[in-house]
Amino acid sequence: MSIDIRKEMGQSGTVEQRIVYESGNEMAAYAAHQINYHIMGYFPISPSTEVAQFLDLMKANGQHDIVLIPADGEHGSAGVCYGASTAGGRVFNATSANGYLYMLEQMPVQSGTRFPMVMNLVCRSVSGPLDIHGDHSDLYFALNTGWPIVLCRDPQAVYDMNIIALKLAEDPEVRLPVLVASDGYFTSHQKRRVNTFAHREDVQKFVGEHPPEGFKHVLDRNNPITVGPYMNEPDYINNCYQQSLAMYRAEAVFDRIQKEYAVLTGREYPILELYRMEDAEVAVFLLNSSSEIIKDVVDQLRSQGIKAGAISPNIIRPFPAKAITEALKNVKAVTVGDRSDSYGGHGGNMVMEVRAALQQYGNSTTLVISRIYGLGGKDFYAEDGLKMFEFAIDAMQKGFVEKPFDYHGITAGDPSKAPQRVLEPMKYEDLKTGLITVTPDETTGKINVRVPPLRSLTKKPKRIAPGHGACPGCGIFSGLELFFKGIEGDIVALFHTGCAMVVTTGYPYSAHKATYIHNLFQNGAATMSGVVEMFHERKRRGELDQYGLKDDFTFVMITGDGGMDIGMGPAIGAALRNHRMIILEYDNEGYMNTGAQLSYSTPMGHRTSTSNVGKHQGGKVFHHKDTAQIMAATNIPYVFTGSEASPVDLVRKGAKAQWYAQNVGMVYGKILITCPLNWLSEDKDGADIIDYAVNTCFFPLYEVEKGVTTITYNPEEKGKRVPVGDWLKMMGKTKHLSKPEYAETLREFENEIERRWNMLKAKHENPYL
């Protein structure tokens, strides 16, 4: 492309470029694929999940060589990335919100041992309560991790900063991991016109060869090194000092790199983005996407004769204190907007740093106003920007700040509109029907359960009210309610984050008629352990007598959508402690609540948004996790699998689970449920698909009672076993496995099903296996 043509298309610079129309997440992935990183360790969390999805789709089509490693959680993904970094390659990651906080422990390790990488933080509200929309509460946790942090106001900046960030991270004067921060949903999902390098070779030429000269790694057998040794003083403080020097050098290095980038592309990213600040008397300081909106407000005020200006940094670690002080030297008042609060600190982190910068460099005249805004994804409009300026104008006119710190955009409460109870508590008499009997067998030591005809149980009230927001055909609630039919009396339920949680609670509404608790993916089992033990201790002390409790609660933790991947550690811990509770997993074979990514329960060859099908990839490349067998290995008293396609079996197991949970200890159960939206199946076919999954022996129905395995339904003995291929043809996500090019994957999947089924039959026949 000639220079003249580039100018006609609104481009400048010396490198050939092409125009795409994509979102921030797509541009992060696009930059990564052009760089062609060695490794990406990742775990899905909204709104950053799409970055891995786009890369996996490109991988399936042979567009890059990045090894994509789906971790068991964000803490694990950070460990994958750190290990890959020590081995000398280029490493990439993306995360958001609580996912970032879960990996937070790893962040100072990465920077403190000076191993470069690039991570996209697609900024989102930190729970709780749970909110998946964009603000900067996760970003502010990153400020003390030792990572340089660059900011992206739009998808173009996401693309450019991802390329600049790698060069910054690997610069010998810096040699630190770099965080690229963009606004969740505002930037991550917003489609914009973006100029990109037309040729991957130009990107790779800009970032340079790898590994940089002089960088140590653990794969050089002739030069063995020790990574992360234990340090006594004074070595530790000296190490931190060296890291501090590198961080401050990063400001000048970033400025040098962005100028080199501007020559190639025509796009500049100065340390501070200043808009009409030359003679400004009032200003507003904002980060990321809001900084674009505020420019229109500046123009509006300028047309009214008000000398307004706007400041937005492109890098906040290191914090450009001197540059900010210089920009504010003639400004009489500035409003600093923080999209997160530093609770108890009289302002968010940015306003504190702006105030500190002004004091450090001798500016005692500029008045500073702090406003918290835009939390939980609350939109920022021009009207909000105008209000930010009004705070500064008022302070300038009065000569003092009347209200130094406040929230902007809150809604005053109205006591008359306080949430009212819609559903009355269920009556104990309706829940304790006596229709199901559970009796221990003194001879065998097992539990005998008598279940009446299912129609007689229909009068038991449903524990989840109608009106939830699940997708049509979702099998979660039919499966859960069927299990709950086997439970007599009161329950306390804890739901992991996931589809079942999200679609049943949206303040001020709740579909739960029993007591409900939510905690995040990884820690539900530990949380419920605390609830259980507190119940028994308060009961022992007589503190619960006033509540008229007739029987003990049954404590049930509901998990799904991969919750037994990221939450496996705490679940095993709770099992080993043998708390009297039930963990019930609904298995929809993926992380469905974040967009159908693969989970460890996704079977081999199945298509998900992170195990795509293309000419270079045929779905998930490794076998599914046998969670029931893992939990059985902890020697808890009762483990079972169930299916709504076998309703009497599931109700019976629910009753048995309650008896063990109230009298002996931990119970784990796994039920397979359908997800038509992401299985690409018809709503009406859900029960049939589940039935076929059982009859192929992919999902066998059995129980492990006090270590003894019993198959509760054997399709071979019933003459109902069907080929695996017949089941796979029922779902769009697996239809490709019937094609000749995927025959080897299908054969390996079938062989694994057969191997596990034969092992289960051996355990059924021998109580010592």
Automatic annotation (TrEMBL):
It comes from the Bacteria. Residues 280-384 form the Pyruvate:ferredoxin oxidoreductase core domain. Residues 550-641 form the Thiamine pyrophosphate enzyme TPP-binding domain. It comes from Cohnella silvisoli. Residues 31-257 form the Pyruvate flavodoxin/ferredoxin oxidoreductase pyrimidine binding domain. Pfam families: PFOR_II (PF17147), POR_N (PF01855), TPP_enzyme_C (PF02775). Belongs to the pyruvate:ferredoxin/flavodoxin oxidoreductase family. This is Thiamine pyrophosphate-dependent enzyme. Keywords: 4Fe-4S, Electron transport, Iron, Iron-sulfur, Metal-binding, Oxidoreductase, Transport.
